[in-house]
Amino acid sequence: MKHCLDELAVFGGPVAFSQPIHVGRPNIGNRQRFLERMQDLLDRRWLSNDGPLVQEFEHRIAEQLQVKHCVAMVNGTVALQIAIRATGMSGEILVPSFTFIATVHALQWQGIVPVFCDIDPATHTLDVSRLESRITQATQGIIGVHLWGRACDVVGIETVAKKFNLPVIYDAAHAFGCTTGGKKIGGFGQAEVLSFHATKFINSFEGGAIVTNDDSVAQRSREMRNFGFAGYDNVTELGTNGKMNEACAAMGLTSLESFDEFVAVNRRNYKHYVEKLNSIPEISVITYDEREHNNFQYVVLEVSDNLPLSRDDLVQLLFAENVLARKYFYPGCHRMEPYKTSIPDASRYLSETETVCRRVLSVPTGTATSLDDIEQICQLLTFCIQHADAIGKRLRDHAAR
Ligand code: T4K
Questions:
Q1: Atom nearest to 196 CA in ligand 1
Q2: pLDDT at 306
Q3: Which of 43, 154, 189, 360 is a plausible cystine mate for 168, CB 3.0–4.6 Å?
C-alpha cells in the first residue's frame, strides 16, 4: 500500500512485488496426470505424426465444442495459415487491425493482401456496419476475431458474407469455451481457429487447432498439416509441417481436465478487478455478457483519455512495481511492419482502432495470480488515479531532466 508519491517505485520507493507478476502466466493442470501421460508416450515410442494422444485431444475438443472435426496443429498461427488455404482464400481478405499480429501475418505470409476494417469500440471486434464499404472486386473473404473471447457479430458478418459470396474464418484463439447466442464458438463460418499457446487458459505448451463442420476443409487441413500427404507416397497438394506432437497433446489433455477450475479462477479474478475498480470513473473493465459462457482469460482495462496520466504512464508506474501489465494490442497491426509501409494511410479509416489501442491495458490473471495480488494491483491503480495530477507532473519533470 502506497501512502505518498515517494513510495512509488518509479520515484525510488520500494517495489510492490518482489517477483514479476505477468499477464499470461501458464495455468498448470494436474502434474501427476501429465507425467503419467509422458511416461506412457515414451513407453509407446510414438512421439508425433497423428499419435493417439493427439487423436484423443482432437476428439475431446470436437466433443466439447460440438463440431464435426478438430484438426490439432503445432500452434495457432500455422492453424490460421492452413485454414486460410484450406478454405481457398486468396486475393484480398478483410480483417481487423485490432488483433494479435499473427492474424494478419497468417495472410501476408501467403501473399494474401490484408484489408483492414475498423472495430466497434464497445465490443473491440469487427464493426459490421463498416464491412461492406471495405469490399471491392478483389475481396475474397473475411476473417473475424473473437477478441478476449467475446464473439464477433457472427450473424452480421455471415449476412454480409452471404450477400457477396465470401468465405469466413474466425480467429477464435481467445474463445475456447465461449458461446454467442447460446451457441458454442467453434462451429461458425467455414472454420474457426484455436490457440493452445502457453499463455492461453487451456494450453498445450504450444498448440492450436482448426475446428469445422465442413468435411472437405477438415480433410484438406489434415493433409496440409502433414506436407500434403494423402497416404503413403502420395502428395496431392502443397503442404507444410503443422503437426502437434504427443507431448503437447499430453499437456493439452491434462489442461482440458482442469477446464472448469481454470474458468472459475479467471471468473473470480475478473470479478475482483471489477469490484475494486468500478468506483474509478477513469478506468473501465471490459464487460462479459453474463448470459453467455465466457472463459475470462483476459482482464482488459480501458483508461480514459481525460486523465492527467496516460495509459502509457500507468504502464510505466506498474512495471516499476513489477506488475508487467500489457498493452494488447497496441499499436494496431496497421502500425507495425510490413503493413505500416504497405498501407500507409490505414489510420484514416481506423479511427476507433486507434482510440482503443491508446486506451487498453491487460492486467495479470489466471491461476498464478492470487486475490491478494489483484488487491495490491488495484490499490496501486487507485492510488495513481487519485494522485494523477501530481504523479503526471513529476513523471514529466523526471523525463525533462
Ligand atoms: N490470434 C490471436 C488473436 C492471438 O492472440 C494469438 C496469440 C494468435 C492468433 C496466435 O496463436 P499462437 O500461434 O501463439 O498459438 C503472447 C502469446 O505468445 C500469443 O500466443 C498470444 N496470442 C499473445 C496475445 O500473447 P507475446 O509476444 O505477448 O508473449 P510473451 O512472450 O511476451 O508472453 C506473455 C507473458 O506471458 C510474458 O509476460 C511472460 C509470460 N509467460 C509466457 C510464457 C510463454 C510465462 O510466464 N510463461 C511462459 O511459458 O504473445
A1: 15
A2: 87
A3: 189
